[in-house]
Write a structure and sequence with these properties.
The complex is a heterodimer of chains A (413) and B (80).
Chain A lengths: L10 E6 L8 H16 L5 E4 L7 E6 L16 E5 L6 E5 L4 E2 L6 E2 H13 L26 H11 L4 H4 L30 E4 L5 E5 L2 E6 L2 E2 L3 E2 H4 L9 E5 L4 E6 L2 E6 L2 E2 L5 E2 L9 E5 L4 E6 L2 E5 L12 E2 H4 L9 E4 L5 E5 L2 E5 L11 E2 H4 L5 H6 L18 H6 L8
Parallel strand pairs in A: 1-2, 1-3, 3-5, 6-7
Antiparallel strand pairs in A: 4-5, 8-9, 9-10, 10-11, 10-12, 13-14, 14-15, 15-16, 15-17, 18-19, 19-20, 20-21, 22-23, 23-24, 24-25
Chain B lengths: L1 H16 L15 H14 L10 H8 L2 E2 L7 H4 L1
The chains are: A alpha+beta (413), B mainly alpha (80).
Amino acid sequence: YLLLGRWRRRHLTFRIFNLPSTLPPNTARAALLQAFQYWSNVVPLTFREVQAGSADIRLSFHGRQSPYCSKAFDGPGRVLAHADIPELGSVHFDEDELWTEGTYQGVNLRIIAAHELGHALGLGHSRYIQALMAPVYAGYRPHFKLHPDDVAGIQALYGKKSPEKEDEEEETELPTVPPVPTKPSPMPDPCSGELDAMMLGPRGKTYAFKGDYVWTVTDSGLSPLFRVSALWEGLPGNLDAAVYSPRTQWIHFFKGDRVWRYVNFRLSPGFPKKLNRVEPNLDAAFYWPLNQKVFLIKGTGYWQWDELAPTDFSRYPKPIKDLFSGVPDRPSAAMSWQNGRVFFFKDKKYWSLNRQLRVEKGYPRNIAHNWMHCRPRTLETTPTGGDTSPSATLNTDRSPIDTILNITSAAPN
Amino acid sequence: RTQTLTEKEAAVEYLLQYGYLQKPLEGHANFRSEDLSKALRAFQEASELPVSGQLDDATKARMRQPRCGLEDPFNQKTLK
């Protein structure tokens, strides 16, 4: 078995958003409920259904397109379902499959649901092809039960089911993190051009970080500036680097010799951690969708990191110039963006790299003009110190997160 | 010949999609035959198929089977 993560709580809620059209609703619901029971029979987890509102685990059926899921299904056959690892909780089934129960025809909903719940609870694929967690669907089995490898895997995460364990206290939601200094640095001027970090974050939002502040960049302008700690509780300012991975939904922030991991705006348990395997004081970090790896940059070197597989860092750092043609050393920020390009930022300039990771013609260009919507006149009148009050200011009437989430992302001019 | 090419392309796509092949850092995905063979061996070993490193009928049949959309963690290192 492979372990991908776990829930800190033992009492979880779930919500069924819709059901397949190929089964009577009662049969489909019974199959899904039985899928939960396979797991709760062997580990001290409980599952409670909710009919409305938020839930830890959310089950739904969608087809080739879904406004809520970036991974479209492929019609009948091939991919049947997918799920997110803890503590995300999405479990999606392909609505184009012939979902069945009690027959060798079609695809058994109960068994596939149990498999996907295994992922949602933290199990990866097993290499035992008879195991429930094997990647390939082995067909309907009238007397289905978990394979010993499935049981060993889930019990490695949550322990064995016993009366003593059931009343175990919930684990602490958030670890203690050092308090954020109460005196923030002066509010920066986005038009000064220099940045600590840039990130294409969840929901396609482009975040810019400078000092103790963060703002989003959109087609129509900039959001108000917020303190970093107002969005990501426990996170200090003056970051070295920030990177979001759509593969894992993890946001990593780097500062000095420490790394913070958040899922959306929630700190992951056990973080911040000490950076042990790469050098401290990174310059920049970005996720490259073409190979699904995170790149960490410092000075003239880079590390390539696979978030879900053991990475041999002994071969790193490698020279930046071996992989990225035409970029500056010691960038202040970097990110890959929605248009497939990678951007490097340094001082007041930025470089655009194509899919072959070569700097495109016409670069570097001006960050303030092309990303921050600053007019040349503004640049002329803005003191070079960059710590004056910017045109966008903190709006205390709204929640920072609400404000950030309500703004669509933007392309550079 | 067209059929063979299509099957090979489909196999490469499968191996890429499920984590047996790593996308190259630069250029197009023109994998060397050694890379493909290595990925096929890992897939065959994980699927309990005869390990040949070749895109044989059993391997193609296994790739056509319905499955979960998540990546597989299997490579020579994890299998070892």
